[in-house]
Amino acid sequence: ATLRLFVTDPSPDGGSVRVVSDDWVEGLITFNNAPPIAGPILASAGPVTAGQWVELDVSAAALSGPRLSFGLTSAVTNSALYSSREGVNAPELVVETLGPPQPPAADFSASPLAGGAPLTVDFTDLSTGAPTAWLWDFGDGGSSTERDPSHTYPDPGSYDVTLEVSNDQGSDSTTSLERVEVGEPALVLQFEPSEDARVRSSRPADNYGATGELRAKTSSTTYASYLKFDVAGLGDSPVSSAVLRLFVTNESRSGGSVHRVDDGWTEAGVTFANAPAIDTPALDSLGAVSLGTAVEFDVTAAITGDGTVSFGLRSDISDSVLYSSREGVSPPVLVIERAP
Fold first, then answer.
1. CA 180 to chain centre
2. Residues 137, 176: contact at Cβ < 8 Å?
3. Domain 108-183 classified CATH 2.60.40.10?
4. What would the DSSP string read from start to end of 232-276?
5. Once rounded to an integer, what is the mean pLDDT over residues 91-118?
6. What is the layout of strands, in order, in the sheet containing 170-175?
7. In the beta sheet, which residues pair with residue 135?
């Protein structure tokens, strides 16, 4: 409900409106016999400008009787004047009533709509009309009565999803315009290194291929490490992702960076003096790493198919980072996810 008043004289305070008693009449009311204006404030106008309508929200007033009375007061000495019912723009009380209750209209969204099995889809109810109950049919025999459920499709297929919503006034249902398309599951391949080793600048001719740790740091003595993997089973399928997983045996402020390097080295023969240069752009780098945790470097860009792939590990700080080698307790792993 809105009380509309037309301003005929401006003021910095258009006043405040309260509900008052109906026990007064236009032809007899005086200051002495007027009903008190003391109830809670329904709305305040703030500054008002001549020639404009002011709208005051009086929805909180009880419209339960045949008559409703308001009192208007101001806290400042600068008068605000409004047109009366005898003036050129009479006050108006505008009351908006709700139509008859309606049943809800079903609608929803889903994401993602496609992917490899198992595929988890999040459903969001977008229904209007204030539903109070929901029934989802996910098209694979699964169902839910939650408002915004998630559902996992374990098997490949094309699925129609239906939502039925209801309230006291009735029900409505809708089926998604786009089906949920679940493809074949992605194939995950894991490889341990066929060779790995670390090298040391202060012993440039020594080989450390049989040690249980890989190490990287840059200082007066620089360490770098190398890993080689023989990748097979990809065929012509595209690679969705590839990560090099290493187990931390000595924490550091930097986990180092991983680079693609030349494959012309061997675990038993590589030394600091003959090791491949680690000078290609970093595939990935890590910040601080913690002892006893497994960390992952994203090396997807280096995996293009079956064959041998070598990585170099380096660090640009003097704080050594150590990882388990293939001879250690937790060997490195190259994890490749192949698209279905």
1. 21
2. no
3. yes
4. -S-TTPPEEEEEEEEEEEE-BS--EEEEEE-S---TTT--TTTSP
5. 89
6. 143-144, 133-137, 162-167, 170-175
7. 164
Q: What is the mean pLDDT of residues 50-68?
A: 84
Side-chain-facing half-sphere of 91: CA atoms under 13 Å: 14
Beta bridge partners of 171: 166
| Mean of per-residue pLDDT scores for the chain | 94
Cis status of the peptide bond prior to 118, with omega within 30 of 0:
yes
| The model's pTM | 0.54
Contact 38, 112 (CB under 8 A): no
Dihedral angle over CA of 113, 119, 125, 127, nearest 10:
40
pLDDT above 90 (res 35)? yes
- With residue 7 as reference, give the H or E element that holds it: strand 2-9
Q: What are phi and psi of 27, to 5 degrees?
A: -80, -10
- CA–chain centroid gap for 308, Å, is 39
Comma-separated ranges of CATH 2.60.120 domains in the chain: 188-338
**163-189: per-residue pLDDT in tens?**
999 999 999 999 998 999 999 887 899
C-alpha 292 chain-centroid distance: 30
The angle subtended at Cα 117 by Cα 111 and Cα 123, nearest 5°, is 20
CA angle in degrees (0–180, nearest 5) for 178-180-186: 140
| Residue range(s) occupied by CATH 2.60.40.10 in the chain | 108-183
User: Domain 188-338 maps to which CATH number in 3.30.1380, 2.60.120, 2.40.160, 2.40.128?
Assistant: 2.60.120
Strands 133-137 and 162-167: antiparallel
Half-sphere exposure of 118 (CA within 13 A, CB side): 7
